[in-house]
Amino acid sequence: MSEFALPLLFATVLWFVATGFVLWLDKLPSHTWPVSITMATVASGFAMGGIIATAEETSPWAAYVAFACALVLWGWHELSFLMGFVTGPNREPCPPGARGWQRFRLAAATLIYHEVAMFLCLIALVAATWGKANQTATLTFLLLFVMRLSAKFNIFAGVPHLSTEMMPDHMRYLASYFRIAPPRWFFVASVSGIAVLAAWLADQALSSRDGIATGYALAFALVALAFLEHGFLVVPWQDTAMFRWAIPEHLRQPARPTVSPAMTESSNVSGQTDTNPLAVRQNAVP
Questions:
Q1: Residue 51 and residue 220: Cα distance in Å, rounded?
Q2: Is the CB of residue 51 less than 8 Å from the CB of residue 125?
Q3: Which residues of 133-145 are buried (b: 16+ CB within 10 A; e: fewer)?
Q4: What is the spatial distance between Cα 213 and Cα 7, in angstroms, rounded to a whole number?
C-alpha cells in the first residue's frame, strides 16, 4: 500500500505546484509572457527528450520522470492558451440570442487551435512511445486531455457553480459561453465514467509491479483529482481558493466588466451564489 501512496502524494503535489506556477506566470505583466513561453518551449523540448529516454524503462523512477515530463508538456499548452498565444479564431463574447449549434460553433472557435495543438501533442507522444514498456507519459497526457474536455463540455452545458477569478482579463470573453444551471445528464455520466476509470486504474496499480504499478498509481491520482474538480462545479466552494497564493493580492477579485445582453438574458437559478458574474444563468439549455 505504501508503494501506492507515494505516487498519489507525488502526483498531487506536482499537479498543485505546476498549476499554481502556470497561473503565477500568467498573472505577471504581459511583457514577460514571450520570455515565459520561450522558456516553457525549451523545457518542453527537454521533457519530450526525457519521455523518449525513459520509454524503455520499467522502474518506478522512470514512471515518475515520464509523468513529470508529461506535466511539463501539458503546462506549455495551458500557458500558451492563458496567455492568448494559442486559442482560436473567435475572440469575441457570445452574441445575444446565440443558441444550439450556433453557440457551440462559436464556443468551439474560441479554443479550437488549443485543442488541436494538444491532440497533435498526444499523437506525437503515442508515436514516440509506441510499443515501449513505459506508457506513463502517454497515459498521463491522454487522461489530462480527456478530463479537461469533460470539464469544458460540462461548463458549456451548465453547472451550478463557476468562478472566473483565475481567468486573465484578456480571456474573459470565454465566460460568456459558460452557463450556470442545474447539473444535467452529461454531468452525471461524466462523473460516473470518471469514477469507474479511477477504480480500474486503482485495480491495475494494486495488481501490477514496479514502474508499471507506479504509472497506474500516478494515473489514478490524476483521475481522482479530476473527479474532485468536477465536484467543485456543483458545490459552492471553489477550487480556485487553493491557488490564490499564485495570484497577486490586487488581482484576486474577479473583474466585473459591462455585462452584455447575451450574458443576462435568462433567469437566475434559484438559490445559487453569483460566483461568476460573466456567465449566462439559466434553468434550461435552449
A1: 19
A2: yes
A3: ebbbbbbbbbbbb
A4: 9
What is the distance, to the nearest Å, from the Cα of residue 57 to the centroid of all Cα atoms in its chain? 28
Grid coordinates of 1: 500500500
Q: What is the pLDDT of residue 184?
A: 85
Q: Are 236 and 161 in contact (CB under 8 A)?
A: yes
Encode the chain in three state secondary structure: CHHHHHHHHHHHHHHHHHHHHHHHHHCCCHHHHHHHHHHHHHHHHHHHHHHHHCCCCCCHHHHHHHHHHHHHHHHHHHHHHHCCCCCCCCCCCCCCCCCHHHHHHHHHHCCHHHHHHHHHHHHHHHHHHCCCCCCHHHHHHHHHHHHHHHHHHHHHHCECCCCCCCCCHHHHHHHHHCEECCCCHHHHHHHHHHHHHHHHHHHHHHHCCHHHHHHHHHHHHHHHHHHHHHHHCCCCCCHHHHHHHHCCHHHCCCCCCCCCHHHHCCCCCCCCCCCCCCCEECCCCC
User: Measured between alpha carbons, how far is 76 from 223 in angstroms, rounded to an integer?
Assistant: 20
Cα–Cα distance between 81 and 229 in angstroms, integer?
Answer: 19
The answer to whether 245 touches 23, Cβ cutoff 8 Å, is: no
pLDDT in tens, 178-214: 988 888 899 999 999 999 999 999 999 999 888 999 9
172: nearest Cα among 259, 99, 244: 259
Cα 213 to its chain centre, rounded Å, is 25
Distance CA 64, CA 44 (A): 16
pLDDT tens digits, 108-157: 999 999 999 999 999 999 999 999 999 999 999 999 999 999 999 999 99
The three three-digit cell numbers of residue 237, written as one number:
466552494
Taking residue 94's Cβ as centre, other Cβ atoms within 10 Å add up to: 24
